[in-house]
Amino acid sequence: MRVLAITDIHGNYREVKTLAGELDDFDVILIAGDITHFGNGREAEKILSPLLGTGKPLLAVMGNCDGRDVLKTLEKLGISVHNKRVEVRGVGIVGFGGSNVTPFSTIWEFSDEEIYESLRRNYKEGDIILTHAPPYGTKLDKTFSGVHTGSRGLRKFIEENQPPLCICGHIHEGRGVERIGRTIAVNPGPLSRGYYAMVDLEKLEVELKKIS
Fold first, then answer.
1. Could you list the residue range(s) of the whole structural domain that residue 137 is in?
2. CATH number of domain containing 20
3. Fewer CB within 10 A of the terminal residue: the chain, N end or C end?
4. Domains identified in the chain, total number
């Protein structure tokens, strides 16, 4: 199964429409949050419409910069995987949106304990993890200033359970791939700047890509 991994759209409908028109060689779309830039559910649905129109399965979590009603919209569309487990074509996906606590008091923030406990409760061995926050202490959560700002709860969960794949976002400059034990963690980079990733689940190979 080929996964189209997207994060941090931040309201850039043009890039979403371009990507949806360029690609067809994938089986499922996973979106790791910040669909809007402090926008509402109606805006989120419009932004996602080109991807929903592909007819491919799509699952998403909200980011810390998505409005309070965005989660309700994702639920209404039947694509939310926040704080739950969903199966697509026999593959389990466990999600958690928002971020760990930041200094900025953004819309969706959770304690590391909440993140850890939700993932632990919903996870079955072999599932994919979809979070907005990246795991702490990796190149995926390192800001331009050199500070690591990811989730310690997610990092603890990965170290203990070793899921095959974690797709995340949140830190725009943290685009990349990193291993934590047997786990491959991927921050595709912000789609607002044209970045995304393709993941081959059978081979566990990741391609970091940019819209042409």
1. 2-210
2. 3.60.21.10
3. C
4. 1
